[in-house]
Amino acid sequence: MEMMPLTSDAGWVKTPGPSTEPTFRLLIEKPEALSVHADEIERLASESLDANPFYLPAFLGPAIKAFGNGEVELALFYAGTRLVFFAPILCAPFHRGALRMAHIWSHNYGPLGVPLLDRARGHAVARALFADLADVGIELLMLNDTPALCDTWISMRRAADSRVHTIFREERPILTVEPDALQQFEAGISSQRRKDIGRLRRRLEDVGPVEFSTAIGPALPAALDDFLALEAAGWKGRRGTAILNHAGRRFAEDAILALGARDAARIERMTVGGKLAASSITFVSGSLLVPWKIAFDESFSHFSPGVQLLLRNTRLWLSDPTIARIDPLSNTADARLLTHYWHHSEPYESAVLEVTPSAARARLARSAEHGRRLLRRQARAVRDRLQERFGRS
Fold it and tell me: What is the pLDDT of residues 332-348, one digit of tens each?
């Protein structure tokens, strides 16, 4: 089909098909348009095949400002007046302009790259989306940090007619909330580990009364300040990976408090004798719960305050009838604490999908991305070894 430009230079629009078909419009817009489409993105997020709290405007807007480097655009696919697909993307030439590849954007503070796709007609929307992407010259679509078993990923793979080139695949710990999930969780804690945890809890009670609470609503700003200070005072602060070191207070306040205003963020706290010993930030989107960050006071480290808070939180989450999936979005190498207590994992993938048949180029793109990831991991490993040796003295 012919394509005609929008009256503005914000994107492209698909010309109408027969009256029996929905009128699809593919828009590629700048981040400034996020507020224009915010209501439709919010609606789609509540009706999508899979949830992604990091693509809610409340979080995405501050994240693009903090980490987008001026390169992120918005891919919006409408059927009539209803948004049926949404994702932030990087869209740039590949291999000296011979190929255009759209890269669905994720980042270290939002490592979930599953787009928002209409639940009622996901596969049909994905098919139509690929046709429109091809019409505007995009030949490849890259997805990162995507659950390999989720419905959205399955629909996207089908739309690509299985022309999928996997870059990277890893297992990440998750919990699914089944009727007996709490019993399974308790049964998975060995008797020796349970005994050790109980002993540490009793020793902690000797220091002062142990209390747990959850900050929401008006209590969230003060709890966030406490969390940021606690994280920055610990090993993450010394390593330079605390939120205040990297993302900054402005991002944290804008994103987390905006999510909190729509009941999508909460902060769990454990105090000992009135002093904050451990704290965690959690996001909720639909039935998905994301344990995002955790920090603890190192003066209590002998009592494992992070473990004490994790166990309390897990029991609370597994008892919540509104939660179906608990996903910390961490690979097992970065989540050693979780893997001692959570014994289920699922595969995550990053892959290149052929929008149009481009197998050789797709393999080249896959190789380039795989090499970039390998170099980044090696650089991180060198940095960690140097900081382990010199940064904690």
Answer: 555 777 888 998 999 99
Shared fold status for 3-170+347-390 and 175-326: yes
Give dist(CA 140, CA 130) in Å, integer: 10
DSSP state of 68: -
Domain boundaries, the chain: 3-170+347-390, 175-326
pLDDT digits (tens, 9 = 90+) for 241-294: 889 987 788 999 999 999 999 999 999 999 999 999 999 999 999 999 999 999
Q: Residue 220: beta bridge partners? A: none
Q: Choose which CATH entry (1.10.3080.10, 3.50.50.60, 3.30.565.10, 3.40.630.30) describes domain 3-170+347-390.
A: 3.40.630.30
Closest CA to 121 of 49, 58, 193: 49
- Evaluate if residue 149 carries a pLDDT over 80: yes
Architecture of domain 175-326: 3-Layer(aba) Sandwich (3.40)
Of 324, 342, 318, 328, the C-alpha closest to 288 is 324
Main-chain dihedrals φ then ψ at residue 263, nearest 5 degrees: 60, 30
Kindly report each contact of residues 102-107 with a partner whose C-beta sits within 8 Å and lies 24 or more positions away, as own/partner: 102/75, 102/133, 102/138, 102/140, 102/141, 102/142, 103/141, 103/142, 103/144, 104/75, 104/141, 104/142, 104/143, 104/144, 105/68, 105/72, 106/54, 106/144, 106/145, 107/63, 107/67
Among 127, 123, 38, 50, residue whose Cα is nearest residue 83: 38
Q: Are 150 and 114 in contact (CB under 8 A)?
A: yes
Q: 3-state DSSP call for residue 22?
A: coil
Picking from 288, 372, 287, 292, the residue whose alpha carbon sits closest to that of residue 328 is 292
The CA distance from 119 to 152, in Å, is 9
